[in-house]
DNA sequence: CTGTTAGCGCGTTCAT
DNA sequence: ATGAACGCGCTAACAG
């Protein structure tokens, strides 16, 4: 395979160019280009000579850089994340979305360029060539980056990203999903519930959820899910998870179960955990421990369950726990988690299709938001209160 | 922010180019280029005028495509995987490697272009611009792709990939690690052991491990780990996992524990499970069930444990189980797995450094392979046989 | 210090 | 059916 001196002007190390092939085949560059791209009309003999020449020289095809410049297109779609690479992919829900995205882009379609940490360093986004960008799981920290993308005239698709001018939005009805889940708990008779939220913004800190922090949440999915819960449990105390992970859920769950969530919701009086209607004072009776915890992701929920079990609490007998996402728990837990299942893969596919559409007609205005819905999965981690 | 008619020749939709900025600042293209790239010498007043012009026009910086062509460099490093995207990143060990790779490339460094499924479609690799490629977890199915990369004169770094001419290899001492683990089991008195292998090649099928299949294994880590085991248990029966996942491990574990591994290792006689020295016939006594299972990844091991527990077997009392990788079990299991810990992150970083080195001096020959070592973690999933 | 010139490698007109 | 010429947007040489 490695015949070195076959070619005509076989320079020691240079890459074979189209012009080399053309020269060897005795045709012009343009003819060779037409033949190799399959499109152009050419006599059978010419075609064959070009193909032979290419094979003999080991032509690797056109240089993607040059082709990209010429065609104004690089065949690359950027996946922009606020988080670091590891954090972004650790949650199966994001992987599922990426899988869907790859699918939606199709087989011969563009490849994915991963641009993590865009919030910290917006400039990363202007140094690489790509034809479209997909924002996944971003908060408003991404807005600077967005401005750059707009200047580059790059179509932008937002997967649960902040709505902004010209961004094709793929959304999830987080509000309704979270509300339904909270409703489910209330129907089961729970009044003292705790919340474990997703990270509020790009600041990955954990701690008690204060009204101020809650109001300042920047990530759409975080604040939407919180809004949904608030429609049912306006005063429930909460804890902010530092990430959507089991470990973070464990920490947060431990905090809530040990009563540390208290400071978050009350000002100065002794009331610690809210109930939904009677006011925070009525339930000051036997226990201040929540009877249910709404975790804003499945991974977090698993961590919460672990924290509960470690404290000798049985789920769901002593504590009901709900998740969010409906990830296929590849053996992550023995529990059949009550959760809202979201069509992550379909969301990714929709994003892929949106990319292709934007590429096909760059002049077209951003399409209307696409809204995906969640479905309640009644698992075995929720039960009637005080059972 | 969106003053539209400020610029001179503000064409309706065109992207602002360097020449627009230069014209507005009243300087030549090259001067503007020098100023914007920070490098060139320029008078303070000129510099300021150029910067002002760029700001006023909303110049987004040089077009990465054009810059890439001109400089012969795109600022992109490809991560090439044999598997589909989801399969490749589901295993935390690969994520850790990616994390390390991103680190090793440094902050202002190249971005990562994900190219999954390269074995199925080698051409994917020739359509996108990148300056170097990292092969992660590939078998020989990648060789066609490799040939293309060679033709493109792209430096290639192999992370546990097949050794080949010009590929900078980052290796792991899988053989020694697997041997040590097997040795550990033998020292504990285990004779009847079963093996659950990683997938043998790009064919993601599961089933009993036959000598023919074993000999035909194409993925380096798979066959090396198998080789290591064979130095201690030459005849142990095995089952091929369809992936490095808990689910696949569960299936394989179930198969071995139910005695289905049998056909794999024997020809026609009744002997089912091998012991290491006395030959397959001696142990036909009470039970043919293995007393220990060597799983070739931690995820697989967790699946095996689950299968065992479901059958009423206690780990490690009734069955010892070992893993491989030493992933941080973010709450994946309650067990403290006995396993070989590999420095996945460091491997990724080494790959990153190798990329930078290759980029710094493209003429340099491929460096010698870098070998990383595993360390035995004696967890709580192995115990003395027959205890 | 600044402007002029010349490509990077390719695809695509427009002639022939 | 084929070849010649041009330019995508930028930067690296050289002149001035």
From TrEMBL, chains A, B:
Keywords: DNA-binding, Transcription, Transcription regulation
Pfam entry (one): Peripla_BP_3
GO molecular function: DNA-binding transcription factor activity; transcription cis-regulatory region binding
Gene3D superfamilies hit by this protein: 3.40.50.2300, lambda repressor-like DNA-binding domains (1.10.260.40)
Domain HTH lacI-type: 16-71
Transmembrane annotation, as ranges: none
CDD domains reported in the protein's UniProt record: HTH_LacI
Name the UniProt record assigns to this protein: DNA-binding LacI/PurR family transcriptional regulator
Organism expressing this protein natively: Schumannella luteola
């Amino acid at each position: 395979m490695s015949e070195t001196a076959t070619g005509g002007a076989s320079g020691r190390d240079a890459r074979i160019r189209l012009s080399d092939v053309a020269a060897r085949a005795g045709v012009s560059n343009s003819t060779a280009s037409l033949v190799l791209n399959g499109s152009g009309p050419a006599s059978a003999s010419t075609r064959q000579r070009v193909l032979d020449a290419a094979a003999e020289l080991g032509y690797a095809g056109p240089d993607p850089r040059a082709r990209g410049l010429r065609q104004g297109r690089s065949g690359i779609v950027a996946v922009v994340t606020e988080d670091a690479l590891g954090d972004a992919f650790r949650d199966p829900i994001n992987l599922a979305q990426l899988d869907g995205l790859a699918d939606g882009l199709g087989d011969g379609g563009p490849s994915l360029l991963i641009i993590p940490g865009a919030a910290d360093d917006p400039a990363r986004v202007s140094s690489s060539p790509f034809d479209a960008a997909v924002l996944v799981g971003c908060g408003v920290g991404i807005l600077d980056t967005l401005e750059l993308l707009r200047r580059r005239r790059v179509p932008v698709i937002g997967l649960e990203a902040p709505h902004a001018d010209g961004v094709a939005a793929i959304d999830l009805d987080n509000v309704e999903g979270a509300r339904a889940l909270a409703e489910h708990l209330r129907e089961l008779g729970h009044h003292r519930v705790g919340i474990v939220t997703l990270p509020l913004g790009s600041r990955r800190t954990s701690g008690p959820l204060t009204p101020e922090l809650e109001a300042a949440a920047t990530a759409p999915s975080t604040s939407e899910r919180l809004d949904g819960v608030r429609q049912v449990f306006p005063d429930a105390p909460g804890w902010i998870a530092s990430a959507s992970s089991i470990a973070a859920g464990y920490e947060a769950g431990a905090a809530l179960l040990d009563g540390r969530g208290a400071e978050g919701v009350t000002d100065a009086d002794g009331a610690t955990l809210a109930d939904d209607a009677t006011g925070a004072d009525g339930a000051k009776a036997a226990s201040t421990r929540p009877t249910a915890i709404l975790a804003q992701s499945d991974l977090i929920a698993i961590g919460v369950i672990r924290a509960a079990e470690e404290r000798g609490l049985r789920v769901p007998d002593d504590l009901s726990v709900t998740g969010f996402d409906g990830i296929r728990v590849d053996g992550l837990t023995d529990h059949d988690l009550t959760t809202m299942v979201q069509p992550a893969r379909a969301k990714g596919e929709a994003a892929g299709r949106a990319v292709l559409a934007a590429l096909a007609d760059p002049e077209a205005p951003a399409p209307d938001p696409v809204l995906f819905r969640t479905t309640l999965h009644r698992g075995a981690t929720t039960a009637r209160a005080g059972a």
